[in-house]
Design brief:
- The complex is a heterodimer of chains A (about 500) and B (about 160).
- Chain A has 23 helices and 2 strands.
- Chain A is mainly α.
- Chain B is mostly helical and about 160 residues long.
- Classes of the chains: A mainly alpha (about 500), B mainly alpha (about 160).
- Chains A and B meet through helix 9, helix 10, helix 12, helix 18 and helix 19 of A and helix 1, helix 2, helix 4, helix 5 and helix 6 of B.
Chain lengths: ~500, ~160
């Protein structure tokens, strides 16, 4: 126990780590808030810059960015009606009407406190459940990892984007990108076309930066001339009575956020929308109708999306399966630092796990401090014109990609993925599943082959395994149900059920 | 949770959908060439599975794109909605930037890129743009070279020129 507390406090006792976490959180708030900059973009670019650092320093900075970024999106949602991040879409629905009533400051104060509360719930769940899940995960076989990978990609494909087919395509494309290069089991070249540049595979950081940085910059070109609207802000610190009033709602929303965040492939954006929906249904007598500045509708998604941060770390650290796009990028960072997230991470490097928990907690504390201060400066920075922002994103993306291996070829990959990602986004594809596929693809491939070899290449034995082992059976059932829910058959079944939707 | 599909087919959507099917079929063929159907645990199986899924989902995407009605106005077109003049110019600027970066080095190439794209996208007084470029470049250089200690390309042109 003392050992755990010691690991937990590493980031709280080292001034340099405190500084990095603080800077990360501060920068994260702005990154999340400025429309066009996203947490995923910032983490992907930062990973390439911090890979020479000590792993603790890199993680402290990234934890701060993650927390700050998820929260930051709410500020622009309230002030400008532009969700700075997808997880703040629900916040904009209620936050902007509040700002128009001149209650912007109060709305920001309330969201800050509730975000911080949500953040703590998520971290607590991470600290309590991750060690248990990780012990449990030691029993997982290669087949179960294959199933988890498929579920992760399908979940993110199902819940985001326009259609299931587009989500599945994006995930499979990611898997394919992850296959390029030397096969890890036989050292045979795959999709290398005789080029030595392709033997090492497509650098996934270049793919991440391309899809999340350059593609987003190109999308932003459409809204080059959207003017910013100024809001009046007076009181920021929320009333104690308000906090008391919404406390239990925030707790419930945090529960939803943690669970959704912990599901492989789903993150803060989905958690926030679900919590908003839950608040809408559970509030019996709303002060104001939803959609016109209702505070329950503001509190719930904000608590949920910050709780999802801790939740998303659970599958990442215990199973090596990212909980959302940002944790997919963070897994990439851990790989670069020579670490292997998975059930053994807690056994072999418990200090790392507790260090992450510690720096997330610290980042959450800084979130409270920065969230309740500096609003005036904030409004000025957020008004940064897109004409300045877009070229800046591209320069940072190019330098970030180059910094990984000092290889100019990587930068060409970045541009290619950027343009492809732009078309995909334009035509309603999500790029999140691609990155999840790139990260999970090689893992799924080797686990598939291990399972197949164990079944002596007998298809019957291979398939039987999915049903004969209890863990595999649960996962297989989950996967089948998920696939079924995407077919017309599911709707027919639902209609036959006696419960009718009111 | 799932955002509603667009009511109208966006310009170029069908062609994009067809292109991804062509890409997927090529990928499947290339995956087949890795080890064919020689075994169930060979290096080529998973790439074939992935590209096979891409073909099937790609075909579904083509079908649904073909069924979505096209917008009947003359204003919307591929070059006005998807690949606008701004997009083409910016992509060309980025391309020249990354071609020139290893030759001219980070500072000069980034400076040129930032100035040109600020000027193109914002169209304000060139002197103001130049000052802005200078400030941003200095900040980026200090943060990344000094704080992050990132190796920034120096450029073969300058290095060779001064030797």
């Amino acid at each position: 126990m003392t050992e755990i507390i010691g690991f937990f406090l590493i980031s709280w006792t080292d001034p340099w780590l405190i500084f990095l976490t603080a800077i990360g959180t501060f920068a994260g708030i702005y990154v999340g808030a400025i429309p066009g900059l996203s947490v995923t973009m910032a983490t992907s670019i930062l990973i390439s810059f911090t890979f020479k650092w000590d792993v603790n320093e890199a993680l402290a900075l990234i934890s701060g960015i993650f927390f700050g970024g998820v929260y930051g999106g709410s500020r622009t949602a309230i002030l400008l009606n532009i969700p700075g991040a997808p997880s703040a879409i629900a916040t904009a629905i209620e936050g902007y009407p509040l700002a128009k009533r001149g209650e912007a400051g109060e709305a920001i104060g309330l969201t800050t406190v509730m975000s911080v509360l949500g953040g703590f719930v998520g971290i607590l769940a991470l600290a309590l459940f991750a060690p248990v899940i990780s012990k449990f995960a030691l029993m997982f076989q290669s087949r179960d990892y294959l199933l988890l990978g498929i579920i992760g990609i399908f979940l993110v494909g199902t819940l985001s984007g326009e259609s299931f087919a587009k989500g599945v395509f994006a995930g499979a494309l990611g898997v394919l990108i992850g296959m390029v290069g030397l096969d890890p089991l036989t050292a045979e070249g795959r999709f290398t076309f005789g080029s030595i540049h392709l033997l090492g595979g497509i650098p996934y950081v270049a793919a991440m930066i391309g899809f999340f940085g350059v593609a987003e910059a190109l999308v932003q070109l459409h809204t080059l001339n959207t003017p910013a609207i100024r809001q009046k802000i007076d009181r920021i610190i929320p009333k104690i009575s308000d906090i008391k009033k919404y406390f239990w709602l925030a707790m419930r929303a945090s529960g939803i956020g943690t669970i959704i965040g912990a599901l492989p492939g789903t993150g803060g954006d989905i958690a926030a929308l679900l919590a908003y929906d839950d608040a809408k249904r559970s509030t019996i007598k709303p002060e104001r109708p939803f959609g016109t500045g209702n505070r329950e509708g503001l509190v719930a998604p904000e608590a949920a999306n910050n709780a999802a941060v801790g939740g998303a770390h659970i599958p990442m650290l215990t199973l090596g399966i990212p909980g959302d796009a940002v944790t997919a990028v963070i897994i990439g960072a851990l790989f670069i630092h020579g670490l292997k997230p998975g059930p053994l991470l807690l056994v072999e490097t418990p200090h790392l796990f507790w260090f992450i928990v510690g720096s997330l907690t610290l980042a959450n504390v800084f979130l409270l401090i920065f969230g309740l201060t500096g609003i005036r400066m904030f409004t000025k920075i957020v008004e940064c014109p897109k004409a300045v922002l877009i070229p800046l994103i591209i320069v940072l993306s190019a330098v970030g990609t180059y910094a990984i291996q000092n290889n100019p070829v990587d930068v060409y990959w970045m541009l290619l993925f950027g343009v492809v990602g732009y078309f995909m986004k334009t035509y309603g594809f999500q790029v999140g599943p691609v990155i999840l596929g790139v990260i999970l693809g090689p893992m799924m491939d080797s686990n598939y082959r291990r399972t197949m070899l164990r079944a002596r290449q007998d298809l019957g034995d291979f398939l039987w395994g999915f049903f004969s082992n209890p863990i595999s059976l649960i996962l297989t059932t989950g996967l089948i149900l998920m696939l079924l829910s995407q077919t017309p058959l599911w709707e027919k079944l639902l209609r036959k059920l006696p419960i009718r939707k009111s | 949770m799932m955002s509603e599909p667009a009511n109208f087919r966006r310009p170029g959507e069908l062609i994009f959908a067809l292109l991804i099917v062509v890409f997927s079929v090529t990928a499947f063929w290339q995956a087949y060439l890795i080890s064919g159907f020689s075994g169930k645990a060979t290096p080529g199986v998973f790439p074939m599975l992935a590209s096979g899924i891409m073909i099937v989902s790609g075909l579904i995407i083509v079908l649904s794109a073909a069924q979505t009605p096209k917008k009947f106005d003359n204003k919307s077109g591929f070059f006005s909605e998807v690949m606008s003049f701004n997009h083409v110019v910016l992509i060309l600027l980025v391309f020249s930037y990354i071609v020139l970066m290893p030759i001219l080095g980070f500072v000069i190439s980034s400076g040129c890129f930032l100035f040109c794209s600020f000027q193109f996208l914002w169209r304000k007084n060139p002197l103001v743009m130049l000052a802005l470029t200078g400030i941003i470049l200095a900040v980026i250089y200090v943060i990344f070279r000094e704080v992050f200690q990132v190796f920034l390309p120096q450029g073969t042109f300058l290095r060779d020129g001064f030797q």
